[in-house]
Design a protein that fits this description.
Layout: E1 3-8, E2 11-16, E3 22-25, E4 35-36, H1 39-45, E5 51-54, E6 58-60, E7 72-75, E8 83-85, E9 101-102, E10 112-121, E11 132-135, E12 145-154, E13 157-158, E14 164-167, E15 170-175, E16 178-180, E17 183-184, E18 194-197, E19 204-209, E20 212-214, E21 217-218, E22 225-228, E23 240-244, E24 247-249, E25 252-253, E26 263-266, E27 278-283, E28 286-288, E29 291-296, E30 306-309, E31 316-321, E32 324-326, E33 329-331, E34 339-341, E35 356-361, E36 364-365, E37 377-378, H2 386-389, E38 446-452, E39 456-460, E40 463-465, E41 470-477, E42 481-488, E43 491-494, E44 498-502, E45 507-523, E46 527-531, E47 534-537, E48 541-548, E49 552-559, E50 562-565, E51 569-573, E52 578-586, E53 588-589, E54 593-595, E55 598-600, E56 612-618, E57 623-628, E58 634-636, E59 641-648, E60 652-658
Parallel strand pairs: 3-4, 3-5, 5-7, 6-8, 7-10, 8-10, 9-11, 10-12, 11-14, 12-15, 12-16, 13-17, 14-18, 15-19, 16-20, 17-21, 18-22, 19-23, 20-24, 21-25, 22-26, 23-27, 24-28, 26-30, 27-31, 28-32, 29-33, 30-34, 31-35, 32-36, 35-37, 38-45, 45-52, 53-60
Antiparallel strand pairs: 1-2, 38-40, 39-41, 41-44, 42-43, 42-45, 45-47, 46-48, 48-51, 49-50, 49-52, 54-55, 55-58, 56-57, 56-59, 59-60
């Protein structure tokens, strides 16, 4: 067997290295080679380090065990695709060895068992561990590691640890699991969902991350989780429970004088001269609606959410950061509170029933009515009630269900200064937390809101986003409008109608539009419109320019037959759509002089003694006069505007006059 060397914190340790074979389990297996029809047979055939791959099927097997412990990965095709069940029903009477997995052994060094991506359900063990049981009767040095990842542990029953039971020296890692609806059926034991009982002189290290422990029930202590570090007078080691980004919800205890509807952590009562320090750590947890027996009024009952039992005051280090523990109920005695201890006999007890030296920051919970705090705490709300949190009415439908908070919750952005180091960048569901995280296991997404002023609409992109994700807002103008920009608090942030950005905070943006008008300019015979046609914003200036062809002369701009300008370059303020026509005529300008209301054609405009005609038109194009041309001829006209054409044998002269 090969030995691999790993260096961690200047400590050298060895780990076993194995070749790896995958054994497939399905209803079509051949029960030979690497193909089997049962999980038990595949485990028996596998060598250390192998993978047991289960098809997306339901396997009905109980008491799956081994004769020799070995490192294995038992892997399903998905939490809801692969199911291993002890029975098809949940009503069969409990009996011995009727759990699903029984991983008992005298463990040797370096063994890691991983179970992932499947459901374990309907175990009905009269002993401990209805779903999974691991008992190590070996030494502390040979403590095995049990990794449970992406599992649903559902509707299992036993007399100690309804869903999961671990005893002896062990490391238990639970990640991304939904431990739901399991039950512990003995009032003398503990742990509706999970029970860990290391026993005399052994250490169990339990880490629970991104998991939900919900709707489990117990006749003893610990409706959801129970850690039993040791009995009175025993030699007890320093056990620990670490829970982060997890939801503990709706677990219950149905026997009087029992404690910890959500979590029960029994450090040690008495009988040892030198006690170790026990460690309970809760980071970004939501512990809500767990119950003990209603009306439980004894001084040894309660707390209802999280209970540390340690009546002699031995050291239990409690660290709690960014948590919510509210709405847990049942006890009414002197120890009734959300989190604390049944300790009533030592002066080191902090009011609120926390045992020794708690460090609690950025958490929302409740203490007893007369409680005060004398220990290290920062930014905690001690009198929270359910209404403050704006919780959803039930858990979400996610693989690991969470209890979502609403936009009015006091938990929203509660952590302004994060004392948790390192911080947890994501919540239970794996969504990014923002710069001011919410308390609890769930991070409320940031809202990107956008509205539109008159002239268009925001057609996509608004909604809920998590920090680090990309939002793309799209603005669409109505007919006759154009998009201008996006503004936020009156400041322009983008001129693109499709505006994408990385979300880091809630934002409210406005899409701005401008009404536009079409200025359509065309030319009559004799010239062209060389610039100015097109769409213009309301209030802007448009300038249309007409250019005559060779031999022609610009006369005027007309709109609906009415002259609006005699300037070839016509500028105006746009306030409506307009259709303009540039008019031209043949000829060259004649010189003119205005004398009172007379228009005089001088000899400078024509060649002397040249025979021709003079034509005078109204602006609308009606001919007023057409007569022979005489040098020095005077033609009386009334006040107004006219077009004058002088026609000779050789040339045509044109002039607009107004007086």
């Amino acid at each position: 067997m090969k030995k691999l060397l790993f260096f961690v914190a200047a400590t050298i340790w060895t780990a076993q290295a194995y070749s790896q074979t995958t054994f497939n389990v399905s209803s079509t297996g051949t029960n030979s080679g690497t193909s089997y029809t049962t999980v038990r047979a595949a485990i028996a055939a596998a060598a250390p380090g192998d993978i047991i791959q289960l098809a997306a099927e339901t396997f009905t097997e109980k008491n799956i065990l081994w004769t020799t412990p070995k490192s294995l990965t038992i892997k399903g095709s998905g939490m809801n695709q692969t199911i291993i069940q002890a029975d098809a029903t949940t009503t069969i009477a409990q009996a011995n060895d009727c759990g699903v997995f029984k991983l008992d052994a005298v463990y040797t060094a370096g063994i890691t068992v991983t179970i992932q991506d499947l459901t374990i359900q309907n175990g009905y063990n009269a002993y401990s561990g209805g779903g999974i049981r691991l008992t190590n009767t070996g030494t502390q040095a040979n403590a095995p590691t049990l990794n449970l990842t992406n599992l649903k542990i559902l509707a299992n029953r036993s007399t100690y640890g309804g869903g999961i039971y671990v005893a002896g020296a062990a490391i238990l890692n639970i990640t991304g699991c939904n431990i739901n609806g399991n039950s512990m059926t003995s009032s003398t034991n503990m742990g509706g969902g999970i029970a860990v009982s290391p026993g005399t002189g052994f250490v169990a290290t339990v880490t629970i991350k991104n998991s939900t422990i919900a709707a489990n029930s117990s006749l003893g202590n610990g409706g959801g989780i129970a850690i039993n570090c040791g009995a009175n007078g025993s030699t007890v080691a320093a056990n620990s429970l670490w829970v982060e980004n997890s939801t503990i919800y709706g677990n219950s205890i149905s026997t009087s004088a029992k404690m910890g509807g959500g979590i029960y952590f029994k450090a040690c009562l008495s009988g040892q001269a030198t006690m170790p320090t026990f460690n309970l750590t809760l980071n970004h947890c939501t512990i809500v609606n767990n119950t003990t027996v209603a009306g439980n009024g004894t001084t040894t009952s309660g707390p209802d959410g999280v209970c540390v039992e340690n009546s002699s005051g031995y050291a239990t280090t409690i660290a709690m950061n960014n948590c919510i523990i509210v709405g847990n109920s049942g006890s009414t005695g002197t120890n009734a509170c959300q989190i604390g201890s049944n300790n009533t006999s030592t002066s080191t007890t902090a009011n609120g029933k926390i045992t020794v030296s708690p460090v609690i920051t950025n958490s929302i919970f409740g203490i007893i009515a007369s409680g005060t705090w004398t220990t290290t705490t920062t930014n905690n709300k001690l009198d929270a009630v359910m209404a403050d949190l704006a919780f959803a009415s039930s858990l979400s439908s996610d693989a690991t269900p969470v209890l979502k908070i609403g936009g009015t919750s006091i938990a929203k952005n509660y952590v302004t200064t994060n004392y948790l180091l390192p911080t947890l960048p994501t919540d239970e569901l794996g969504n990014n937390r923002d710069a001011s995280p919410d308390a609890g296991a769930y991070e409320l997404p940031l809202i990107v809101a956008a509205t539109a002023v008159t002239g268009g609409a925001v057609t996509s992109g608004t909604g809920s986003y998590y920090t680090g994700s990309t939002a793309t807002l799209v603005a669409t103008p109505n007919s006759g409008y154009r998009f201008i920009n996006w503004t936020e608090n009156g400041t322009e942030v983008s001129t693109n109608a499709s505006y994408g950005f990385t979300v880091s905070a809630a934002r409210t943006l406005v899409a701005n539009f401008m009404q536009t008008y079409l200025i359509a300019a065309s030319a009559g015979t004799g010239g062209s419109v060389t610039s100015g046609s097109g769409n213009y914003d309301s209030g802007t200036t448009a300038t249309v320019v007409a250019t005559p062809n060779s031999g022609y002369h610009f006369i005027n701009w007309k709109e609906n037959g009415t002259e609006v300008s005699t300037s070839a370059s016509y500028g105006f303020t746009v306030s409506t759509a307009r259709t303009l026509v540039a008019n031209f005529d043949l000829g060259t300008d004649i010189n003119s002089n205005l004398v009172s209301n007379q228009f005089v054609i001088t000899k400078d405009a024509i060649v002397s003694n040249v025979v021709g005609a003079i034509q005078i038109y109204s602006i609308s194009g009606k001919m007023i006069t057409n007569q022979p041309l005489t040098v020095g001829q005077i033609i009386p006209l009334t006040v107004g505007s006219y077009i004058v054409r002088v026609v000779t044998n050789n040339e045509v002269f044109v002039k607009k006059i107004s007086f």
